Amino acid sequence: MLAVYKRELRAYFTSSTGFIFMGFFLLLSGFFFALTNVFGASSNYNAVLGSITFIFLIVVPILTMRLMPDDKRQRTDQLLYTSPLSISGIVLGKYFAALTVFLLTLLVTCLYPIIMSFFGDIATWEIVGGYIGFLLLGSAFISIGLFISSLTENQVIAAVITFSALLFVWILDWVTQGLPTDRISGIVFAAILALVAGAFVYYNTRNIYVGVATSLLGAIIIVATYFLADKYFFDGFIVRVFEWFSLLKRYDDFQMGILSLSSIVYYITFSSAFIFLTIRAIEKKRWS
Amino acid sequence: MIKIENLTKRYGQHVAVDNLNFTVNEGEVVGFLGPNGAGKTTTMNIITGYISATEGTVTVDGYDILDNPEEVKKRIGYLPEFPPLYVDMTVKEYLDFVFDIKKANTKNKKQDMERIMELVRITDVQNRLIKNLSKGYRQRVGLAQALVGNPPVLILDEPTVGLDPKQIIEIRNLIKDLGRKHTIILSSHILPEVSAVCERVIIINKGKIVASDTPENLSRRLGESSKLSLRIAANEKQAVKVLRDVPGIKYVEAQGVKEPDTVDVWVEAEKDIDVRRPIFNALSRAGYPILQMKSMDLTLEEIFLQVTTRENGEVS
């Protein structure tokens, strides 16, 4: 893993992608820092971190597009997959290399709050919390990009699809505002979730009874919740589900300086899930 | 050393490798021969663990590629058809990386690297970027990569393709040298290469083995009767008439005039009868000098064409 990590990290800076990523990120964050803190004469640095999340849309595809396709193009995947390395080692090495470039860039932006600290008091721990959240958010996006790069052999396609996927994350957040909040649609949505869960179980086990049982269990839980526990549980259920899964919504906590364990676990789980999917996608390709 | 049983690889409907069975003993140099698309590269990719087989097993040194992929991969050095090089690295950095990922012993790493670079003669380019190297040097760096960790088995997929004649000879000699210490499977569609380097040839076509033997045995077994080509200073009728009377000759075929006042004739003799002396005696008695006589043993090329174009051509 370490060898792949070193080689990928090096490749970021022997090709231009590492510099493009850093340059673009620092340009925009510097711009927002100047606008908000310097010209706005505000000491609220977390506002800057909050407003620059959209940069991920553009820079994450740059960072992740070459991770998998590049090996395919140079046929060095043959070297990697015929070496005694495990696929998870290769994928993790690549993921951490991308993460390191991102982390290095974030370290440079730490200069901004340090500059501010010369001229007044800053909320140090809030800013640290904001940075932790920002790093977790970024690592989740990078894992999406890594997964998408493993699906295609073309860097441009990888970049475009990653951009679209990240855009979808943002759009989902906007759409959430307009979703119905009444009880009936909440129950219907819960029923659909139960059906999907049943279908998923059926797809994986190929056993129709287990699938139906899963859906029925879901239905029982819905009915039980409605009649026995809390009548109002399904009011605004859809919005709550979407917000719970939203990567961006969870970042709001960090921005306010709240370090919530469930959010940290969520981000790490999210990244792990996509790294796992990447490993599976590569294995599947070699098996078919 | 390498044992392949019932190996099959399907891509959807297409069968790339069809129920392949063969073994390679320790220290053997085996040539893998076949036209393009015969399944050579696919078989090699499966042995090295790059892709998986649909059915069948591959065992290297007693380890199954599915059960113990790491042990198998440690024992194999693979040079794919296109050498897998990171072109943005120098030769030395690249080999260093290969040492790391192959988990080759780190104690004598430096000497090992020097030795390998010396062996494939890339010491003088070790500090150059791979992207600036010529095709021949890249091929050699690819070979160096396969040698890292001193694996007992080497699998080389068309190692001389795209090289100039001088480089081809160099690489071939190198492979011959390596054959003394390693078990080698080498694929090629260049026949002289295989007969020059390999102790045994496996010819595959459409995913199946059609022949497997030493190059000499193959040409002997397939050359069912001995053919001779003659150039005689006589006219066609006279020459054919004299030759027909020589005992042991199955048939005579005139090939027309290739040189003024001579005729070219092909003669086929009965099996295991040497007709060269009787032919000389008969023709000299008739007063027709022989200007040229050569035996027409089947070359590997002809064998290859014969077995790969024959319908269901099972030879062995």
Task: Note down, in words, how this protein is organized.
- The complex is a heterodimer of chains A (288) and B (316).
- By secondary structure, chain A is mostly helical.
- Chain A has helices at 2-14, 17-38, 45-51, 55-64, 69-74, 77-81, 87-109, 111-117, 124-149, 155-177, 183-205, 208-229, 237-245, 247-255, 261-287.
- Chain A is flat and about 60 Å long.
- With 316 residues, chain B is of the alpha/beta class.
- Chain B has two domains: 2-221, 3-Layer(aba) Sandwich (Rossmann fold), CATH 3.40.50; 225-295, Alpha-Beta Plaits (2-Layer Sandwich).
- Chain B is 34% helix and 28% strand.
- A six-stranded mixed β-sheet of chain B has the order 6-7-8-3-9-10, with helices on both faces.
- Chain B is elongated and about 80 Å long.
- Chain B starts with a strand and ends in a 7-residue tail after the last helix.
- The interface between A and B is medium-sized, with 24 and 27 residues.
Largest interface, C-beta within 8 A: A-B, 24 and 27 residues
Number of strands of chain B: 14
SS-based class of chain B: alpha/beta
Strand content range of chain B: 25-35%
Q: Name the CATH superfamily assignment of the largest domain in chain B.
A: P-loop containing nucleotide triphosphate hydrolases
Summed up:
By secondary structure, chain A is mainly α.
Note the topology:
The complex is a heterodimer of chains A (288) and B (316).
Chain A: H1 2-14, H2 17-38, H3 45-51, H4 55-64, H5 69-74, H6 77-81, H7 87-109, H8 111-117, H9 124-149, H10 155-177, H11 183-205, H12 208-229, H13 237-245, H14 247-255, H15 261-287
Helix pairs in contact in A: 1-7, 2-3, 2-4, 2-7, 3-9, 4-9, 4-10, 7-9, 7-15, 9-10, 9-14, 9-15, 10-13, 11-12
Chain B: E1 2-11, E2 14-24, E3 29-33, H1 40-47, E4 55-60, E5 63-64, H2 69-75, E6 76-79, H3 91-101, H4 109-119, H5 135-147, E7 153-157, H6 165-178, E8 183-188, H7 191-197, E9 200-205, E10 208-213, H8 215-222, E11 227-232, H9 236-244, E12 249-256, E13 263-269, H10 276-286, E14 290-295, H11 300-309
Parallel strand pairs in B: 3-8, 3-9, 6-7, 7-8
Antiparallel strand pairs in B: 1-2, 1-4, 4-5, 9-10, 11-13, 11-14, 12-13
